[in-house]
From TrEMBL:
One protein family per Pfam: Adenine_glyco
InterPro entries linked: Adenine_glyco, DNA-3mA_glycosylase, DNA_glycosylase
Organism of derivation: Lacticaseibacillus baoqingensis
Domain of life of the native organism: Bacteria
Protein name (database record): DNA-3-methyladenine glycosylase I
Amino acid sequence: MVERLAWAAQDPLLQAYHDHEWGVPVHDDRALFELLSLEGFQAGLSWLIVLQKRAAIKQAFYDFELTAVAQMPPAKIDALAQDPQLIRNRLKLQAVVVNAQAIQRVQQAWGSFDAYLWHWVDGKPLVNRPQSQAEIPTQTPLSQTIAKDMKKRGFKFVGPVIIYSYLQGAGLVDDHLAGWRRLE
């Protein structure tokens, strides 16, 4: 039997995300930007809501093409804040644009956003294999350090809890249960 975390058993969309994306190492800057944006949208909401709105969010933000998003004018954000297909929190919508600009600065300094992120784990995923969901923290000293650094670089919606969830989603941290095995 495939052992999923309890949060992933609630809905087929969550199951698919858990089984095929969560904890899989991501190295593409566009995909890393998308996930960071989705994690920001999740603040105060369920991951299921974010996944249900993911297609509309991708469309609204030009499939997370960094240059296009970084140049989005405030009027576009105003329009998105009225779209019921999206999470209409203006601060979260604005954060996507701000974070695109911050990623561009990181790319200039590091060569890629991928290089910046993965340096925190020496290029290798941290594999924890907890015995139960209760053993999985909501934040760690690593997520606190990264969150602090990202805030200094101008990122928004990057607190230590969001960043820990981001590290899990992007595969820098693998918190699948000890009995987990990915079915291909």
